[in-house]
Design brief:
6-stranded mixed sheet, alpha/beta, 302 residues, globular, 3 domains
């Protein structure tokens, strides 16, 4: 999610909930659109009739179409995957090019960026308490299906970083999408025009017996002192409020000055690719230098 900040549109930019580097291909969008029209019994020449349909009917058709159209195969290791499903399409007109592939866009070169991710993204047990019972053997079998002969090395690298993590949590940590955020920050810095700052939100919510952990979008209530308003996600605890003060002041300072530093945090350096500094937001906020590099490299190479 990208948000303009402070005086003027896109004066500063914050990217949360995932860095979109490469958007949907026209042929992929075309297949989805054709499937939706087919579900509704419409032809291409009747596309205007979509405006007359109730929202509920459109949603039903979109869900059905999504099930009919196969997901594009994953790219080879090291290649950047294009976004799939519903979303912006690179059509050469409304969206002339991919936003951050193969390079950062020149149009926003002078705009500071704050870019980040959460630790777990999608916790398998968030909606399924039984997933907490996943055994080590079951997790290893899942990894073997995905990573084949690399599964052992992937697990070993993950264990080095997260030695106390349960099997269910390791499965979400290994699938984490931090790579795109680092690529985006790197390409931004390579322009040598404006700074980029990288964060990793690792605070784990106590709600639902802690099963969601640091889930997708879990940092958003912390940005503008909204942890009590969003108590369903944060627990509304004193600990959450204390962290919210640190996160909120960072976002406010960034909106004002293009620099998120403030006295409540350790010094937050501008991102640079070799050290890979990242502000880790948790009970104790610390700066770490690319803490999961070995794991990421295993996940993105053959």
């Amino acid at each position: 999610m990208a948000m303009p900040a402070a005086r003027g549109l896109f004066h500063k930019a914050v990217v949360q909930s995932g860095s979109g580097l490469k958007m949907i291909r026209p042929d992929e969008s075309g297949r989805l659109a054709a499937a939706v029209l087919s579900e509704l019994g419409l032809s291409k020449s009747q596309v205007d009739k979509l405006q007359d349909l109730p929202t509920s009917r459109l949603v039903e058709a979109m869900i059905a179409a999504g099930k009919r159209v196969p997901t594009p195969p994953p790219p080879p290791p090291g290649a950047i995957a294009a976004r799939a499903g519903w979303g912006p399409t690179v059509d050469g007109k409304n969206l002339p090019a991919d936003p951050f592939d193969p390079t950062a866009p020149a149009i926003s070169a002078n705009i500071p960026m704050l870019i980040g991710t959460v630790l777990n993204e999608a916790s398998p047990s968030m909606s399924d308490p039984k997933a907490e019972l996943l055994t080590e053997e079951e997790m290893e079998a899942q990894l073997a299906k995905t990573y084949r002969n690399r599964a052992g090395r992937v697990l070993e690298a993950a264990r080095k970083i997260y030695p106390e993590a349960k099997p269910v949590e390791l499965s979400s940590l290994i699938a984490r999408q931090r790579t795109n955020a680092i690529i985006q920050a790197t390409r931004k810095i390579e322009q040598k025009a404006a700074p980029a700052y990288l964060y990793l939100f690792t605070w784990k919510t106590p709600v639902l017996d802690g099963r969601p952990r640091a889930f997708h979008c879990s940092e958003i209530p912390f940005v503008f002192y909204n942890t009590d308003v969003a108590a369903f996600a944060t627990g509304g605890t004193a600990e959450a409020r204390e962290l919210a003060a640190k996160v909120s002041d960072a976002w406010i300072n960034f909106a004002r000055k293009g620099d998120p530093n403030h006295p409540g945090l350790p010094k937050w350096p501008v991102f640079e690719p070799h050290q890979g500094p990242v502000m880790v937001f948790d009970k104790t906020c610390v700066v770490k230098n690319d803490p999961d590099r070995e794991l990421r490299e295993l996940l993105t190479t053959s």
